[in-house]
Write a structure and sequence with these properties.
This protein has eleven helices and 15 strands. By secondary structure, it is of the alpha+beta class. Bound molecules: flavin-adenine dinucleotide (FAD).
Length: 287
Amino acid sequence: MMEFEYHQPASLESALALLDQHGDDARLISGGTALIQFMKQRLAQPAHLVSLAKIPGLDYIREEDGQIRIGALTTMRAVETSPLVRERASLVADTFSRVATVRIRNMATIGGGLAHADPNQDPPPTLIALGSSVVLRSSSGERSLPLSDFFVDYYETTLQAGEVVTELRIPIPPANTRGAFIKFLPRTADDYATVSVAAVLEMGEAGLCRAAHVVLGSAGTTPVVATTTQDALNNKILMDGIVANAAEGVADLVSPLDDFRGSAEYKRDMAVVFTKRAVQQAWQGGR
Ligand SMILES: Cc1cc2nc3c(=O)[nH]c(=O)nc-3n(C[C@H](O)[C@H](O)[C@H](O)COP(=O)(O)OP(=O)(O)OC[C@H]3O[C@@H](n4cnc5c(N)ncnc54)[C@H](O)[C@@H]3O)c2cc1C
């Protein structure tokens, strides 16, 4: 690794000032699980590392205004095991439990994970399907935006220079909502997904799907919202044939990358298969 200066500010304001002062030479570090790998491979060579670890008030999970609000420094393991998350949004706890291994989940944070923006990550599809938003702070103020607008390309987000992810907001799903997250892992249990699918269905009487939210991971350079599948499920009485036809639509939406987890063609086929399974699972026994 290149030499760097390590800063441990005690307040968010000091961290923001350091980012402003050092510009492109500075990088934030939270859990370090992704950034340290990048630094070892010289994909990132910051002269200044600004740690968020000593800043109070960024590690919390609480319910407010019909949302679960999670501070950026909260670990993935804390989300997975939170009684509040398990009770009010069990799909979220379930999804976080699928990330890598417990050692990684004990270190990796909500803010670092979102900012990393690897399209193979597990939480974004579920969080987008639930309508989550993200709060960003800089020295010039605060803004929030839907998570669906946050990811713009491969490892790229709308984060501007000097901005920090401070909070994730997940709307608490109403009682008539059912969801499922499926991660297809043909290699090892702790791998990134070959393809993943989150399905969240707002159900009415007698099997009516009022609104479907279906989002895929590992299916393009960002999470892919399966708009055609959603349209084909909205306001329909669900039946096996309708679900199967709706899933076919994702083949034209995804643009997976060829890699050691499978060819693009194989992943496209699996995107259809696992979209069908995720919707079926949400409909017939979802969380
Ligand atoms: C071996 C291994 C296996 C993995 N498997 C999976 C998997 O199966 N599924 C999955 O979903 N993920 C997986 N991960 C990825 C893991 O989710 C990321 O490494 C993790 O989310 C990064 O979080 P962090 O807190 O460690 O971020 P860091 O490494 O600290 O930072 C990552 C990036 O975010 C920036 N950053 C950090 N905090 C903030 C902030 N608050 N605001 C703005 N920018 C910030 C940093 O500058 C850096 O660019 C795996 C990682 C490893 C190492």
